[in-house]
Specification:
Blueprint (H helix, E strand, L loop, with lengths): L3 H22 L9 E7 L17 E8 L6 E3 L6 E4 L3 E5 L6 E3 L5 E2 L5 E2 L5 E6 L12 E2 L14 E7 L25 E8 L5 E12 L2 E8 L2 E2 L12 E4 L14 E5 L13 E7 L11 E7 L7 E6 L4 E6 L4 E7 L1 E3 L7 E4 L2 E3 L8 E3 L8 E4 L1 E3 L5 H33 L3
Length: 421
């Protein structure tokens, strides 16, 4: 008689309970994957292939298989939290050792601007140049810019509005063409802010004067100073908009016109820089029998700004947001996948290492190929099914008791033999 079968059953069941206990312990660990104990029977005759009625000599733990199924995704209030919806792993590095791979997206910004996890490992991806263009290639640790964004002078202005065809002509019959201080010499006005090369704001006001039927003169001032004047200093129109009889798209001008804003003094008494060569587009104007209204007035200049936050897109692009309302890419997260994720070597700390069994990593940006997409402000929960694990624990407990009972029965039989006289 042998105790080996029951003893191997006790050992195997004990290992099974360890796996179940580890799953339960990590049921609330973000990015954790459950494991499963896989067993195999043992036959002594398998060594030489002989015997058809051989009795097994127990069981052994053949493998602990990791289960890389998708965990539930839960929303958080932290924009730095990331979840992968689909296949793939974050790549993190300490800058020295080979990259590690993780499904835990609890990231933070360290003192040097690197995106790191709780272990201090840096998230890897593609950097962006000063203009915000992603530089694909060899992934490296992502580092957010610390400098602000430089200002940009206004280069294009688009002005769309409806000029009321029902109003009367306001062009004076004699004297100056327009008196900016006299509202009776023009019909409507609207204002906007332009920016010079230093990022200083320049208050630009447009004045619309009906010169004749279907004709409107457009004047402009910068910080209260007329943009175009004659030799006597009297304001001149930037352009004259001519409409067809139906009041639709202007017949003149049919293309953007060039606007040169001179240097001026702003409300605080500071000198602003001249802004030459602005392309002013008024081809979207209309002249219908409706009240004056501006439907679109925008320009492409902006003041300098400081970094105020980041946003991560589904495709992994890390967008930096600045205090002046501008934004530009600061990098892009690269993720990796494996043909055999179960072959990855667990390292602890929610990380795995590549191995011969897993194969080489297949890298790419989120959403490309068979790689999953990112979801910012969310985390992937553990895929442990707590209910199933508790049921498995009860089953394993019964199996352990049964193996122990088998040893007890073997002992009683041996005792009976020893007591024979």
């Amino acid at each position: 008689m042998s105790f080996q079968q029951a003893l191997s059953g006790l050992n195997a069941t004990s290992k099974n309970l360890e796996v179940i206990g580890n799953n339960i312990a990590n049921s609330s660990t973000f990015g954790a994957k459950s494991s499963r104990a896989e067993f195999a029977d043992v036959y002594a005759s398998a060594l030489n292939g002989g015997g058809t009625n051989a009795t097994g000599i127990g069981v052994n733990l053949q493998a602990v298989s990791q289960q890389f199924t998708q965990g539930n995704i839960t929303s958080t209030d932290n924009p730095m939290d990331l979840a992968i919806n689909g296949s793939g792993f974050f790549q993190v590095t300490d800058g020295v050792s080979p990259p590690q791979y993780s499904r835990n997206g609890q990231f933070k910004i360290d003192r040097d601007g690197f995106i790191v996890n709780n272990a201090g490992l840096q998230l890897m991806g593609y950097p962006a140049d000063g203009t915000g263009t992603i530089q694909p290639g060899q992934a490296s640790a992502l580092q957010l810019p610390t400098a602000g964004i430089n200002p940009a002078a206004t280069g294009n202005i688009t002005l769309e509005m409806n000029l009321d065809s029902r109003v009367g002509v306001t062009l004076p019959a004699a004297g100056p063409r327009i008196l900016l201080t006299d509202p009776t010499t023009y019909n409507n006005a609207t204002s906007m802010t332009a920016y010079d090369a230093k990022g200083q704001d320049v208050a630009v006001t447009y004045y619309f004067q009906k010169a004749a039927t279907d004709q409107w003169n457009v004047y402009a001032t910068a910080n209260g100073t007329a943009v175009a004047v004659d030799g006597a200093g009297v304001p001149l129109p930037l352009t004259t908009i001519t409409f067809p009889s139906n009041g639709g798209t202007p017949t003149s001008p049919v293309a953007p016109l060039t606007l040169d804003i001179p240097a001026s003094i702003n409300a605080a008494g500071a000198q602003t820089v001249a802004i030459p060569g602005i392309q002013l587009n008024v081809t979207g104007a209309t002249q219908y029998g409706a009240q004056f209204g501006v439907t679109n007035l925008n320009q492409d200049g902006y003041a300098p700004g400081q970094l105020v936050g980041i946003m991560i897109e589904n495709n992994g692009v890390v967008t930096a947001r600045y205090s002046n309302g501008q934004s530009k890419p600061a990098g892009q997260v690269e993720i990796a996948n494996f043909r055999n994720p179960q072959g990855l070597q667990p390292l602890g700390g929610n990380a795995w290492a590549a191995s011969f069994a897993s194969g080489d990593p297949i890298k790419g940006t989120p959403g490309n190929g068979n790689l999953g997409v990112l979801q910012a402000g969310a985390l992937e929960e553990s895929n442990v099914d707590l209910t199933a694990e508790l049921v498995s624990m009860i089953t394993a407990q019964r199996i352990y008791q049964a193996n122990a009972q088998s040893i007890k029965t073997e002992d009683q039989v041996m005792q009976t033999l020893v007591n024979l006289r």
